[in-house]
């Protein structure tokens, strides 16, 4: 899929649950696939965070 004719970039997004003791490993894995971290917010329990990621559509 190519960029829209207007030249605007198009992104896809993902939300990923993070476990506090493995946060770096999880983010590194997603980063290797081209995902960029946008934000991390508290999850449904104290042991969990949720990461919001984006990457440009190919």
Verbal overview:
The chain is of the alpha+beta class and 58 residues long. The chain has one domain (11-56). 17% of the residues lie in helices and 43% in strands. It has one helix and three strands. It has one helix at 23-32, and strands at residues 11-19, 36-42, 48-56. Strands 1-3-2 form a three-stranded antiparallel beta sheet, with helices on one face. Strand 2 (36-42) and strand 3 (48-56) form a beta hairpin. The radius of gyration is 14 Å and the shape is elongated. The N and C termini lie close together (6 Å). The mean pLDDT is 90.
Descriptive terms for the model:
58 residues; alpha+beta; three-stranded antiparallel sheet; elongated
Task: Describe the secondary structure blueprint for this structure.
Elements: E1 11-19, H1 23-32, E2 36-42, E3 48-56
Antiparallel strand pairs: 1-3, 2-3
Organism: Nakamurella leprariae
Protein name: DUF4177 domain-containing protein
**Rg on CA atoms, Å:** 14 Å
Q: Quick one: biggest sheet?
A: 3 strands, antiparallel
Distance between the termini: 6 Å
Please give the count of helices: 1
The total count of strands amounts to 3
Tell me the structural class: alpha+beta
Report strand %: 35-45%
Q: How many domains, as an integer?
A: 1
Percent range for helical residues?
A: 10-25%
Instruction: Report the principal-axis shape.
Output: elongated
What is the residue-mean pLDDT, rounded to a whole number? 90
């Amino acid at each position: 899929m190519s960029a829209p004719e207007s030249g605007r970039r198009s992104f896809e997004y993902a939300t990923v649950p993070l476990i506090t003791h493995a946060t770096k490993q999880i983010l590194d894995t997603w980063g290797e696939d081209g995902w960029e971290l946008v934000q991390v917010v508290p999850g449904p329990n104290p042991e969990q965070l949720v990461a919001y990621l984006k990457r440009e559509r190919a």
